[in-house]
């Protein structure tokens, strides 16, 4: 796995690079701003980019903007975005163009090395990794027209685990139910949210984010 890191905090940036190299992964470049990050992506053509949400000069949404631009320049580039705390709008903006090969994690997750590496591997393989805290806040946020209102409590549990990137077997193990039961819940979720089979590539995460649509 070939990686470029964009993080303006020098300690975290170098810590990430050391961690990944210790795991046998190839860190091609570490950068501290959106401009140098995009230049590094152009030069090295990495498999995955790890990007901080907030970077210079304004420390607002530069990371998200750079991540979206990097994927425009290099279609198929996997991107794992790191944030100090849950920023719902940024998570939604990132996933708006499709969920394949995208992740959004809180920085505290990096300290849980196995979880972080599993999320990175999932994103690099074309999957999705959304931090459980982000999922929890998205699902809990009240809305006047909540498209998730028709889901049962169990379906909402399954939906939250889907958005974390867990497969059906892992969800079954977490909830102490059979794979068949999970498959049935997921079919019901898709049906209630009007997600057709031809939306297969994105509908697992679309199901979580559907209620955010205006």
Automatic annotation (TrEMBL):
Q: What SMART domains is this protein classified in? A: HTH_LUXR (SM00421), REC (SM00448)
Query: Where is the Response regulatory domain positioned along the sequence?
Result: 2-122
Q: Which PROSITE patterns does the protein's record reference?
A: HTH_LUXR_2, RESPONSE_REGULATORY
MF annotations from Gene Ontology: DNA binding
Asked if the Swiss-Prot or TrEMBL record annotates the protein with the keyword tRNA processing, the reply is: no
Q: Which Pfam families does UniProt cross-reference here?
A: GerE, Response_reg
Asked if the record carries the keyword Cytoplasm, the reply is no
One of the protein's GO biological processes: phosphorelay signal transduction system
Q: Name the InterPro entries for this protein.
A: CheY-like_superfamily, NreC/VraR/RcsB-like_REC, Sig_transdc_resp-reg_C-effctor, Sig_transdc_resp-reg_receiver, Tscrpt_reg_LuxR_C, WalR-like, WH-like_DNA-bd_sf
Q: Which residues form the HTH luxR-type domain?
A: 144-214
What's this protein's name?
Answer: DNA-binding response regulator, NarL/FixJ family, contains REC and HTH domains
What is the source species?
A: Actinoplanes philippinensis
